[in-house]
Specification:
2 copies of one chain form a homodimer.
Chain A (H helix, E strand, L loop, with lengths): L7 H11 L4 E2 L2 H8 L13 E2 L4 H13 L4 E4 L15 E4 L6 E5 L4 E5 L4 H10 L2 E2 L12 H6 L7 H4 L6 E7 L5 E4 L13 H4 L8 E8 L1 E2 L3 E9 L2 H15 L3 E8 H10 L13 E9 L6 H14 L3 E6 L3 H12 L1 H8 L2 E2 L3 E2 L5 H15 L4 E7 L4 E7 L6 H5 L2 H14 L15 H7 L2 H14 L12
Parallel strand pairs in A: 2-4, 3-4
Antiparallel strand pairs in A: 1-2, 5-6, 6-10, 7-11, 8-9, 8-10, 12-14, 12-15, 13-14, 13-18, 16-19, 17-19, 18-19
Helix pairs in contact in A: 1-3, 8-10, 9-12, 13-15
Chain lengths: ~475, ~475
């Protein structure tokens, strides 16, 4: 399992490959690499290597493969499932592979190295007058290599797809150190198996992504954000269909927030206020964008909401009339995790179900968890437009953190069981890593688990790449 | 190589599995299954099975796997590279797997069986008020299973992507007969390797697709088609960028046609006329669509063209003001293959290069082939918006068909060499099949060929599935 002893000979060889600037071995320097961002996993490693070129990555992997020692690739270390935490293996940080090799405004592509911070990729696209649409909370520190190897989601999936769909080509170092140069920037290429798909979303277990050709898009010139009260989750789903049709598929964001998640924000986050006059039980934050030169999203949005109001499923709405006002609305949604944290301990989920079944999921899951923990605060919000709900429980008043968290395994099981029963997923966007490896075995069919094992054996027979993760 | 002798025992077992309505073994009945649509390949098979359920497909594959006899899956048999032609193997037709299992207008999905004809899938989506955007010349007879296993392209790739991007889930029969049920309809599901990607585009060599969950989209309510004369291929590329930005990425079609391709159509296809007053060397057929309830594509298109006119790269344009007029413009583009056929023998290509390099490709390829065949008629047209050009040569006057076609291997080599040198693909949308298997070995890096072999060995170690194709 890539768990052969790391000899001083190998350590020396790796240090030589990456040079004096390319490694760290002292405990305090290692700290940011061995602890995951939530502090749930503390790993250990004898050596962090920080190769500066793909040739160095290749040489590092080759040396480790020859010694049968495992490697854990790590980008910005912002993952939520412990996928980048080493357990004695060599840690390979992609942070120094940070060149933006090319931005081509005619081809609408950017060729970037794995260690580029997502925000820098976005900025490079913007500088060329274009958009790289991947956007998520960690964008100031996560790296594009990590985004691609985990098939990151975020707030623009509804319109632009997951990270996987934003890639035209990849450069990858394979388990024996071979470099596969698949850095194509073609929109069409039907010449055999689409190998890049193997490495996208496989969390570094089949190969290490060192560079990618990304798709860029025309930059949005018009944005309209609305905060809408609807009568029920069903009403929210109905509004989504209406907005998609009315806007010509211009809905970029469609986020659900229940009353509790809004209340938590209003209570714990300074300078926030309910944008609507009265209390409502269900809300949607929605955003339309358009890259047309001239457009009138406001009338379009008003007409869509008006229709929902007349049909009785939209109750009230606030449309942001300035960028500052739009940012205020977004802040309500983006502050939920922070508000949850301030309010107490949380038991969290990242499930998805078919969009049409979100209302049924919310009802069944709420009922089931309240049977187990009648006083818990259910906090339900998330990317309704993708069927991806963060169905969370917060520590009830009068229960200690430890007593509450003792329920986590049972509650997790209950919620995931319901999602999977409803044709859903136990991990919509955060991946598997270490945290959900047992869930994968539990929820996937034996056929599917065996297919995954077949792939892993074929591409990494010695289990060198991120051993112990995913499968 | 899946080439064990087919015994009468196996034949009997297969007939039992599919029942009396499910097989064909007499020569005249076999004809449509063993001859490809262009008549380039005539294969042979001892038995055509037409299973009616996935369980029957599974049992057929299991029986063949046990006997180590190869299977060639076939959909509508409209492929252009001989990928569905049997060479002594059992032929498995998906034609009876033709149920549309579900259309869900809330989830924007359709669940269909592999044997559904593409036009029927489009119609089912339209009946629900939605759009399934895959569209290509053979849509009246090709089957969705074939479209997915070849990752079909067509005329709406620019806006909606290839077939691969239109799929949420698959049901697949594996090489040993096991059924993998991956019929998920989730927009987000990061739980390990994305197995469906393996079977999409692998031309039936890794598994047989029996059903799929497809993405649907809001139906376009507005369409504007224009036939535009531009000063050069560079001008066409520039116009594409301008239209993408001006329309908010609403360009669905962007097809290039050189003068020769237009002339061929005007000469050989009845009731066609040049939509523009004067002769021009380079044309674009472009179409904008919008699914907004209210929209004004015409002003948008006029403004974009006006800008190109003022900047000097657009020379003239005709905007269709009725559906009939739009169909006339489309007919000019769609009739090119037929016009080529009437005009004489053709040497054809389906290459792609990065969009920005299409002009350079056209220049280099023209120069190179005219060096080899100075009198040949170069016919260049195709999906410029995808970088996918059909760069064809037609038989020159005064040269016999045979003398002309004797140049095919050399010309093919020349054109593909140039495309691949320019970071391009030797097969953009038609696939590999039998026709381009040697090209795959020639143009792919050894690393990539070996990765493909690794996949094939892992998923079909006995070479049961479509042996001799792709890799």
């Amino acid at each position: 399992m890539g768990a052969a002893t790391v000899t001083s000979g190998l350590i020396g060889r790796l240090k030589d490959i990456v040079g004096a600037q390319g490694w760290l071995a002292e405990a305090p320097e290692l700290e940011p690499y061995v602890l995951d961002q939530r502090g749930w996993y503390r790993g250990h490693t004898p050596l962090v290597v920080r190769p500066a070129t793909v040739a160095e990555v290749s040489a590092v992997v080759r040396a480790c493969a020859e010694a049968r020692v495992g490697i854990v690739p790590q980008g910005g270390n912002t993952g939520l499932v412990g996928g980048a935490v080493p357990e004695g293996q060599i840690l390979l940080s992609t942070a120094r592979l940070k060149r933006i090799r090319e931005v081509d405004p005619v081809d609408f592509t950017a060729t970037v190295e794995a260690g580029c911070v997502l925000a820098d990729v976005q900025a490079a696209a913007a500088e060329a007058g274009l958009l790289f649409p991947l956007s998520l909370a960690a964008e100031g520190s996560c790296e594009i290599g990590g985004n691609l190897s985990t098939n990151a989601g975020g707030t623009a999936v509804l319109r632009y797809g997951n990270a996987r769909e934003l890639v035209l080509g990849l450069e990858v170092v394979l388990a024996d150190g071979t470099i596969w140069n698949g850095l194509r920037r073609l929109r069409k290429d039907n010449t055999g198996y689409d190998l890049k798909q193997l490495f996208l979303g496989s969390e570094g277990t089949l190969g290490i992504i060192t560079a990618a050709v990304l798709k860029l898009f025309p930059r949005p010139r018009h944005v309209r954000t609305a905060f809408v009260a609807v009568t029920s989750p069903e009403a929210a789903v109905r509004l989504l269909g209406r907005c998609r049709a009315a806007s010509g598929d211009g809905v970029t964001t469609f986020e659900y927030m229940d009353r509790t998640s809004l209340e938590l924000v209003l209570e714990h986050i300074p300078d926030t206020r309910d944008p609507l006059g009265e209390r409502h039980a269900h809300h949607v934050l929605l955003e339309l964008t358009s890259s047309r030169e001239r457009d009138d999203l406001e009338s379009l949005l008003e007409a869509a909401l008006e229709g929902g109001y007349e049909a009785g499923y939209v109750v009230d709405a606030a449309i942001a009339t300035s960028e500052a006002r739009s940012r205020e609305l977004w802040r309500l949604r983006e502050s939920i995790p922070e508000a949850e944290r301030v309010a107490g301990a949380g038991i969290k989920h990242d499930i998805s179900v078919p969009i049409a079944r979100v209302p049924e999921f919310l009802e069944r899951a709420r009922e089931a968890v309240l049977r187990e923990l009648p006083d818990a605060l259910v906090v339900a919000f998330g990317h309704l437009g993708d069927g991806n709900i963060h169905f969370n429980l917060n520590q009830p008043p009068g229960m200690t953190r430890d007593a509450f968290m003792a329920h986590m395994p049972g509650i997790n099981r209950t919620v995931m069981d319901i999602a999977v029963e409803m044709e859903g997923s136990f991990s919509a966007e955060h991946g598997v890593g270490r945290l959900k490896r047992a869930d994968l075995e539990r929820y996937k069919s034996p056929v599917e688990v065996e297919l995954m094992r077949t792939l892993k054996r074929a591409f990494d027979p010695e289990d060198i790449l991120n051993p112990g993760k995913v499968i």
